[in-house]
Amino acid sequence: MCSGQPGFLRNVGAQLVGKCRLLECYSLTEAAQMVQLHRPSVVLIDLRQGFPRQFDRSWAMAHNSNTTFLIIVTNISELDQSHVPAEIADRVVHVQVDVATGDLSHVVMATEGLLADGRQRIAVAVNDQNCAAYFPPEPEAGDRFSAVTPQSPLDSAERTNVAEGPLTHNRIADIPVTGDSSVSGQPSIADRYRTRTPILRQMLERLEVAAKHDVTMLLIGETGVGKTHLAKLIHESSQRQEEPLLTVPCGALPGDLIESELFGHVKGAFTSAHAAKDGKFLAAGRGTILLDEIDVLTPEQQVKLLRVIEKGLYEPVGSNETLKVEARIIAASNLELQPLVEQGRFRPDLYYRLNTLSFNILPLRKRLPDIEPLARFFVHLHAQKHGIDVVEICDQFINSLVSYPWPGNVREMENAIRSAVIYSNGGNLTIDTLPPNIVEGAAGPGNDGSVASFFGGKRGASLGNRIELTEKDIIEQALLNNSFSRTKTAKQLGISRVTLYNKMKKYDMMPKG
What we know:
This protein is α/β, with parallel strands linked by helices. It has helices at residues 8-15, 28-38, 52-64, 105-116, 156-163, 189-192, 198-211, 227-236, 258-263, 280-283, 299-311, 337-342, 348-355, 368-386, 395-402, 409-422, 436-440, 450-458, 471-481, 486-493, 497-506; strands at residues 21-25, 42-46, 69-75, 92-97, 122-126, 131-135, 174-177, 217-220, 245-249, 264-265, 277-278, 288-292, 313-314, 323-324, 328-333, 358-360, 392-393, 428-429.
């Protein structure tokens, strides 16, 4: 059952980034297991348009954990207080959302209020098909899920302000929600891209600003990181969202047909041109065209592309007629273009034209905070698609995913999760359901040295023993492994905190803001 607002988790979760650790589950069954396993202090459940059985299962969660508080989110008048069992009524907070505005600000306030009330853990369940659990960063251990330096959930001033509301009373609190909020409306690109990695979120915030303007953009990232998906998000965030989005996989086309695919051709332009054909630039109209793997273009093709970008003009193959491009161009490449320029394989003028608004997408192995949420999302997606009821995801399953460097990135992970769901035994996802190479850490080929450095960081290798790898990759991975604790990172790398600080400063790795 869907509430009609599938962005609930992303909207609310975005407001809690940095205040707690995020885990996700995608059914009330799994949420109930998480309550039993972790004994969270707070459970947030989105039951807008919910069925009676979903309310009953929610009450059962509270019954099974007498230290757990529930925040129940419904549309106005969907829940009568008398329907809440009396024995748990003092642990239930009811937040009513105005369906006309969809404003979730009071949901965030309620959650922060209970976090601020001295509670160490919070679990969040969102609908019967979209659940998640939040846990604040542990102050001691190097938590693999924490994307930022651990911090207290709320400072004393915030704690005082929130505690003045109705959440401080041990009774059900009906909170109508009206008006506008920063969490209402379309989620940000960072949220729709499903990332909680601070560095990547910062980049996507810059990208979202550019997406709203009519400018050419360049996406750089390894195969499988989601460049096509990101291009779709850019298109949806622009004024062209009602127009078509076309993708041209340049690397999959024979070199002599790329120009025809892009610009079209007239009849008889070449041997097999038995009829005229419109190119993708014409077919895209006023929409968006994604040119994937532009690094394969020949120098002559690069010249023509540069003319299209700068002047918006081109001629179909075999024609003298000049046409004007109205589509927005997004270019993408699996490879960094600067080395190709230095090797004479990519034109400097095109490189400098594209590099003005270029965005590098981190590989999955450098986005450790994203691995578990993405994995649970794919579990839910493919369990639904294949009609399999997944009832449990064991810790070793998640640990194996986090400990693998994913040279194929998100695409490789989704394929692995699909396989695991298909081979799940009785709905239980264990390491035995994963492909053997992932459990064994036998990563496939990759064009980035950080695949090897990933294992170096995991095994605690010192910088002196890994001189063949770049310092930046090793330090970056070690910081992720140690939840950005400089003390633990320096100890793992066998260097002093001062040395680590200087190297982070040298490689522009210091936290921004």
